[in-house]
Design brief:
Largest sheet: 7 strands, mixed
Mean pLDDT: 91
Organism: Junco hyemalis
Number of helices: 6
CATH class: Alpha Beta
EC number: 3.1.2.14
Protein name: oleoyl-[acyl-carrier-protein] hydrolase
Number of strands: 7
Enzyme class: hydrolase
Low-confidence stretches: none
CATH superfamily: Alpha/Beta hydrolase fold, catalytic domain
GO molecular function: fatty acyl-[ACP] hydrolase activity
Number of domains: 1
CATH architecture: 3-Layer(aba) Sandwich
Strand content: 15-25%
Strand order of the largest sheet: 1-3-2-4-5-6-7
Helix content: 25-40%
Structural class: alpha/beta
């Protein structure tokens, strides 16, 4: 459990868990800290993939199916134990959606709310177009791919950090390309509410398709900032207040 999940503040009496799925090339350092910002009703878990942080010595995951299976098997007890919600940003949105589909299909489990951020809806033509991009080998070409897949955000200036981020990003991009959402699975798979967030200065995402993926309500919020708008303290505060209210209303 500790290998897969970062939980900086355990809250055994929380009424719901928020499982966070980070963006490509990153780890748990940002989203795990939300555990200190939510009130006692919400416990935050952040997913840590192989090849980074405490899992640095492990090989990167080769396909999304293996990621989904690991997350599901490790967290199944916790997900059955009390209500849960998902938050995914960018690449993390697709990972969270793949896990949610698997949980619904195999175990009949569904989040009380899906919070999606800075990503095309997986039933859109834009999603399929990004998924079919041929990944380059050169580090300079990779920068262009990061902008296509990752939107507009400032990259690290430190050379070693840039190299590590680029390597991890490329492996996550390969992982993203193994996502497969079958049409039969996409026939209104969820009944929970879905909220979609994005940055006003980020590239345009085709997000309206989320409405077709649930029989619940769908809402959309644009916040000031670029691809990593969620790291701005004012936006972070908005997200946490909004998610807390949505989760409590969904229980």
């Amino acid at each position: 459990m500790e290998k897969l999940v970062a939980c900086v503040q355990k809250k055994p009496d929380a009424v719901c868990r928020l499982i966070c799925f980070p963006w490509a090339g990153s780890g748990t350092s940002q989203l795990a800290q939300w555990g200190r910002l939510f009130n006692d009703s919400v416990e935050v878990f952040c997913i840590r993939l192989p090849g980074r942080e405490t899992r640095l010595e492990e090989p990167f995951a080769k396909d999304m199916t293996s990621v989904v299976n690991e997350i599901t098997s490790v967290l199944l007890k916790e997900l059955k134990e009390k209500p849960f919600a998902f938050f995914g940003h960018s690449f993390g949105t697709y990972m969270s959606f793949a896990v949610a589909l698997h949980l619904k299909k195999k175990y009949g489990l569904e989040p009380v709310h899906l919070f999606m951020s800075a990503a095309h809806s997986p039933n859109s033509a834009a999603y399929l177009a990004v998924k079919s991009i041929v990944l380059p080998d050169g580090p300079n070409d990779l920068l262009a791919i990061m902008e296509i897949l990752g939107g507009n955000f400032e990259l690290p200036h430190d050379e070693d950090l840039w190299r590590d981020t680029a390597l991890t990003f490329k492996e996550d991009a390969k992982l993203f390309q193994t996502c497969s959402f079958e049409k039969t699975e996409m026939n209104i798979p969820f009944s929970c509410d879905i909220t979609y967030f994005c940055g006003s200065d980020d590239k345009i995402y085709d997000a309206k398709g989320w409405q077709e993926l649930t029989s619940g309500d769908t809402s959309f919020y644009e916040l000031p900032g670029d691809h990593l708008y969620l790291l701005k303290p004012s936006n972070e505060s908005f997200l946490i207040k909004h998610m807390t209210r949505s989760i409590e209303n969904g229980l």
